[in-house]
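Notes taken during the Thursday session

The instructor put the following on the board and asked us to keep it in front of us for the whole hour. The protein is CSN8/PSMD8/EIF3K domain-containing protein. We were told not to look anything up and to reason only from what is written here. First, the residues (109 in total):
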Amino acid sequence: MGNIGEIFQLRHNVPSKMYTIFMDSLLKTVRNQISFCIVKAYTHLKLKDATRMLHFTNDVETVHFANEKKWVMRDHVFNFDTVESDYPEMKYENVIDKTMAYAHELENI
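Then, after some discussion, the predicted structure tokens were revealed:
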């Protein structure tokens, strides 16, 4: 997991409320990237492990996220055998461009 956990901790320690929008967008992007890696790396994953890996505070949040991703869960285990083919590729350049533009705008404020 590396320093990814620190990103989620920073959400609660932003220097100004104006950063909250940026942090929410960043956390969503990070979770989407983690979920992409999960689908690529695992055929099965327990709900509690997915909750930990995605940095959710409880299993209900994980199930909600998983439903949005159309992950299949049976007996508290996600099965990714059928998910991979339908999983969209992330457009990293677009995310980076928007993040950098937003950071530039914050500097101007």
